[in-house]
Amino acid sequence: MTDHLKLPDGYGRPPEQAGPQGLDLARRLRALTGVDEDLLAWVWYERSKYTALGGVVLGTSVIAAFSMWNFVNEAIGEASVLALLPAVVWLLFVLNLDRWLIAPQPNAKRRPGPLLMRLAVALLLGTVIAEPLVLRIFQTAVEERIQEDRHGDVDRLRGNLLRCNPDPSQPDHGTPAGCGSYLLSFGATPGGQSTELDALRKDAAALQKRVDQDSHALEALDTEVREECRQLIRNASSGLLQRTSECLRLRDKAAEYRSTHHTAENERRLVRMNDRIGQDGSRLTRSRGTFLTARNAEITQRVAQERAKQKGIGVLERMQALEALTADHTALFVGVWMVRLLFVLIDVLPVLVKFMSHENSYDRLLSARSNSAVKVHSAAVHAMERESMADLEIKQEVTDQYVRRRKAESVAAHREHVAAMNIRERQTVDSLEEELRRPSTV
Question: For 263-321, how does the pLDDT look when each residue is reduced to its tens digit (9 = 90+)?
Fold first, then answer.
């Protein structure tokens, strides 16, 4: 149809577009809106609007590509050239989708259904594009929150490991609650040695107490013996000095106390127990040091494994951190949503500009050309139908004539055959009559 509606040279063209187009940036921007340049030449004053709209479409596509590039980099945890491939694919997809959403449609009525559907698609697309950009803008705060959470997780892990794996040589307070995944296994622990040493110390303390009591009692008896045995009396019969009977009794009492309370044996036993306590204490100290070294090594390994899991910061972790930040700070919550809505509005802007604007001259020309094309197509189809029907009627007439001619030829041939048969029949009859009439020669 455009070949029949060519404009005169220079008509409807600004002076700078009167010559060859070449690499015309404005023309390429208008191509992003889906307009027809030949039809737009009739309403040249609409070019600037469609050029600007094409720039908006290109801008939203570039923003979408940057968003995808940032999203891929955050997903893999580092900046990579490979992120350019999905970014370019995303740019072309968003560019083509926006072009489809705002492409002029002939006889387009302002019905709410298609408008709401296209707005819903644009809003969903804008939300998907806006989220990585929001994470990029608040990257510093998000990463600081993630590092704080990770340090807190490591500290809690270390604290739970220490709480759930206490030193067995210390007083036992039972297994702490919630230690299912924090219990560590060791080859040997000083728990049994500590229990045995505690029992030995208790026995030694009890024996020490008994020895002390016996020592005090013996010291009192020895003091009484010394005091009493200082006195000497003269024997009446021999005239010699001798100990008093009380001194002898006290000496016997002290000797009997020593023999009945086993004081010397208890003291030797106490010395052996103290020596054993010293040896067992040294072994326990070494065993406890070995246990603490093994426990610290296990805890260090578990902490290192936890930190190894925290090397890269994923997108989901960033989103969770941003949500936690916005929940704690109202001002940040408002700021995040303002930025998010800004990017969503930018992504929806081409559709809003298209469907909030009134019908312009280009739309009316497009509708008129579409209606004309429909009419011409209908007329062409009708003409082709009539031509086809005429050809069919002619072919039908030729066929009918052929059938009639064949029928007539068939009837004539039948009649000729019947006539020939009648002639042959009459000839046969005549020949027989003639033979019958001929006189017999006998």
Answer: 777 777 778 777 777 776 666 677 667 777 777 887 888 888 777 777 767 677 787 88
User: Exposed, middle or buried, 55 (CB in 10 Å: 0-12/13-18/19+)?
Assistant: middle
Amino acid sitting at position 280: D
> Buried b / exposed e across 25-50, counting CB within 10 Å, b at 16+?
ebbebbebbbbbeebbbbeeebbebb
Question: For residues 144 and 147, what is the distance between their CA atoms, to the nearest angstrom?
Answer: 5
Show Cβ contacts of residue 86 under 8 Å, excluding neighbours closer than 6 positions.
68, 69, 72
Torsion 300-304-306-307 (CA) sign: positive
Helix (H/G/I), strand (E/B), else coil: 11:
coil
Q: Among 344, 341, 335, 315, which Cα is nearest to 124's? A: 344
Region for residue 22 given its phi and psi (left: phi exceeds 0; alpha: psi -120 to 50; beta: otherwise) = left
Distance in angstroms (rounded) separating the CA atoms of residues 91 and 64: 6
- Rounded CA-CA distance 17/12 in Å is 10
DSSP designation for 175 = P
Nearest to 360 by CA among 60, 3, 39: 39
Is the CB of residue 125 less than 8 Å from the CB of residue 57? no
Q: Which two tokens stand for residue 251?
A: 């000496």
Q: The tokens of 262 are what? A: 């086993």
pTM above 0.70, yes or no: no
Ranges of beta strands (E only) in 142-221 are none
Q: How far apart are CA 109 and CA 359, in angstroms?
A: 9
Question: Reduced to 3 states, what is the DSSP secondary structure of residue 176?
Answer: coil
Q: Please tell me the number of Cα atoms within 13 Å of 214 on its side-chain side.
A: 20
The Cα–Cα gap between 221 and 255 comes to 10
- C-alpha span between 394 and 386 (Å, rounded): 12
| Tokens 């806006």 belong to residue | 130
Residue 351 · residue 99 · CB < 8 Å: no
User: How does pLDDT run across 219-250, given as a tens digit for each residue?
Assistant: 777 777 777 776 665 554 555 555 666 777 77
Residues 341/344/346/351 CA torsion (nearest 10 deg) = -130
Q: Which residues contact 291 (CB under 8 A, 6 or more apart)?
A: 167, 168, 169, 186, 188, 189, 190
Cβ-based neighbours of 55, under 8 Å, separated by 6 or more: 29
